[in-house]
Every structure is written in structure tokens, then in C-alpha cells.
Input
Amino acid sequence: MVADPNAFSPLRFCVAPMLEWTDRHCRFFHRLLSKRARLYTEMVAAPALFYGDAKRLLDYDAFEHPVALQIGGSDIRQLVHATKLAQQWGYDEINLNCGCPSERVQNGSFGACLMKTPVLVADCIRAMRNAARIPVTVKHRIGVDDTTDYAFVRDFVGALAAAGCDTFIVHARSAILAGLSPKENRTIPPLRYETARQLQHDFPDCRFILNGGLTEWTAIHEALHHKSSSLCGVMVGRWAYHDPYMLAQVDRRLFDTVLPSPSRREVLENYIGYVRTMLERGVALRTMVRHILGLYHGQPRGRLFRRYLSDANNLKRNSAEVIIDALNVVERN
Ligand SMILES: Cc1cc2nc3c(=O)[nH]c(=O)nc-3n(C[C@H](O)[C@H](O)[C@H](O)COP(=O)(O)O)c2cc1C
Output
């Protein structure tokens, strides 16, 4: 059998950075489902890190590794500061957001609008790479507004590759900066996976991770084993969040793991231990429970589980027993 050169790529499967979703509790829960997936933080704004409470923004549990910090910004001094902090905090990677289309982000001059200023982004990447040893990666789109020709994204990637960036996460849609909400920007601009494949073909020394609209194993398999140009990895966002038990299949399907996947019950029992510790530290049950609502997605009584854990009166108890009760609701014989 021919060895698969991508078999051990650390970015073979990534869970996307998602604001207000992939917080530390979510990542801890996801890590109980997959040991190998690379997890990304929500985007942290570089100015917030520069002027604000770094500990609150960066703290996480060592169990979450491998975990990448996603940063938003374009001020070199702030990005260098963020990179040093990311290394100090033990993050496995720092990822620069060049794909987020929200207006708030555009005003701060970061996100997808940065694709229009590749020279500036290349300077940022160079400075970040010089500031620390951890890998510096970029997440970007394939076009901005009306500029959707391949040369645009090719030149953007080319400028960053020349600055030393060798890993690109490609959300394979354009970003429409005026007129579409961030949510619409994740559904309306058409997906063009072939652009990511073309980039991989044109920059063979770089790694391209495909993101956007992956909701089936067959699509993931196709991305990783395409006949003309295979990609080094995939990043999944909404599917993993809404149906997190898909993550329990990642290690066996995409890595060399032979251990059986954990059952939903095992995952929950371990998460309950974590929840108890966090409750003692004053974290509200509600903020930890919201990430697990989809664990029984598509299962008998899965809706009862979700409903039980969404009920304000149950959440008011602010006790880990609420999750045990939900488990009994969904798994009663
Ligand atoms: C609620 C939500 C928040 C998001 N926040 C971020 C973010 O902070 N940084 C980022 O680069 N992308 C963000 N995204 C985009 C995702 O990372 C991903 O690119 C997008 O959802 C497409 O992947 P999917 O189709 O697998 O969900 C967010 C997406 C969602 C649904």
C-alpha cells in the first residue's frame, strides 16, 4: 500500500474559528470527541489583546491541544504583541483572519478587506514570524466584492508565501463587503472548491486547507483525495457545531487511530466532570451547556435532550445534575 503523505498532517481536520461558538468550553467538549482535530479559538481582536485583559481572552485548558489562536488585526505592533502572547500561552499556531466580512471588522481594518492590501498583510506575516516560533497561518476568502478572478487570490497567496507563510485556510467563497450580513456571506456567494485546488497546484510547497460548506464525509474524502489536486486538510464549522458527534468519527476516518470512538454517554460523563470544576469557579451552567445541545442530533429523543437543556427553569438550577437529568431523558430504555 502506498503511504498517504497527508496522513499525519496536523491540519488534516480542523474545527473552524466561530465567534461566540468556539469558546474554551466548546473546545473542551470538542476535544472529548476527537483527539486529533485541530481546534481554533473564536477570533480575538488584536487591539483588545493589546489594550485589554490578555488572561481573560487567552486562558484555556491544556486538554484542548492542539489549539490555534485566531487573531484579527492589521497593526503590526499589535499583531507582534499578540503573536508573542500566543506563544507564551502555549498555543500551537496563530492564525490571521483575512476572511471575516462583518462591518465591525472592516472598520477596524481587519478580516476579508485585508485581501485588498497584500503588501500590508505580507509585512504583518513577516513581523509575526519573526516574533515567535509557532506557525503563523492565514484564513482567507477567494475574492472580495466584484474582484473574483483567480489572479486576485493567487497574487494574495503569492505575496504571503513570499513572506514565509506556508499554510492557508481557504474559505472557498468570495466575501461581499457591502450589502450582505456575515451570515449571508456564509451562504450566498457560491462555493468554488476548484480555486483551492488550483492554489494547491500552483503553490506545491504550501498547504491549503479547504473550508466552506462541508457537510458530508464524501465531500471531505473528495477534497483530501482528489484525482487532480488533493488538499492537505479540511476545516469544518457549522456541521461540527450543530452535529458535534461527527467529530467522534474524525480520528478513525482521517487519522491512523484504531481506538473505538467514545459513546455520547462517555463524552457527556467526562464533560460533566469539567462542568463541575467550572461551576465551582463561577462559570454559569448555561454558557457550557449551549455547546452540547446538538450531541444527539438525529437520534431518537434528541429533541428532548435539546429541549431539556434549553429550558430556562432547568438552567436556573445551575448544577451539573441538569446534564445528568438530560442524559436520563435521552437514554432511558
Ligand atoms: C457563528 C459563526 C461565527 C464565525 N466566526 C468566525 C471567526 O471568528 N473567524 C473566522 O475566521 N471565521 C468565522 N466564521 C466562519 C467560519 O470559520 C467558516 O469559515 C464558515 O462558517 C464556513 O465554514 P462551514 O461551512 O463549515 O461552516 C464564523 C462562522 C459562524 C457560523
The mean pLDDT is 94. The longest helix spans residues 264-280.
